[in-house]
Amino acid sequence: MDNTSLVTLLKFKRWIDAETLKVIKGISESAYAEKRHLMLRLMNHIYVVDMIFRANISGHKHGYTALNTPETPSADELEVKMNDCINWYIQRVSSMSPADLKETIKFSFVDGSEGEMTAADMINHMLFHGSYHRGAVGWLISECKGTPPKDVLTVFLRDHNH
């Protein structure tokens, strides 16, 4: 996959993460406190994993000791953090050559075990990982009488990829 396709997928992720957080903000905290909290925990988990792979691609230590943080950020905080993170990916991937994407990067998992993946595989993992967990968030939104956003690439390409 070339970096143009990856950048489109990253822009899709930026859009759907923001749309998902917008819907979460509309879920009543008093009526659905536990489920709303779980939605934010899942979105924060997505963010933490995004940051871990950002560090891996950059060749830095990520500093995380778990796949989520002890504290749960607000939807507003997550909106800013997730947007900043994905904008970093868009900028970084836009400047990567095919050779950069194929480069194998060694890293440490949160549990301390060693791993290695290409930069492209890391980016794909980050993209698919977020999609998986947003699906669970969408289910929770439905259980709270909300309408989950259309988490599909076709809608993004039709309506938002200008």
Topology:
Layout: H1 3-25, H2 33-58, H3 75-94, H4 98-102, E1 104-108, E2 114-118, H5 119-143, H6 153-159
Helix pairs in contact: 1-3, 1-5, 2-3, 2-5
Residue stretches low in confidence (pLDDT < 50, at least 5 long) are: none
Choose one word for the global shape: globular
> Percentage of helical residues?
55-70%
* Number of continuous helical runs: 6
Radius of gyration: 16 Å
So what's the oligomer here?
Answer: single chain
Keywords: Metal-binding
Protein name: Diguanylate cyclase
Pfam families: DinB (PF05163)
Family: Belongs to the DinB family.
Give keywords.
single chain, about 160 residues, mainly alpha, two-stranded antiparallel sheet, 6 helices, 2 strands, about 65% helix, about 5% strand, globular, metal-binding
Describe what you observe in this structure:
This protein is mainly alpha-helical and 162 residues long. 65% of the residues lie in helices and 6% in strands. A two-stranded antiparallel ribbon has the order 1-2. Helix 1 (3-25) packs parallel to helix 5 (119-143), helix 2 packs parallel to helix 3 (75-94) and helix 2 packs antiparallel against helix 5 (119-143). Keywords: Metal-binding. Belongs to the DinB family. This is Diguanylate cyclase.
Summarize the structure.
This is Diguanylate cyclase. This protein has six helices and two strands, in the order ααααββαα.
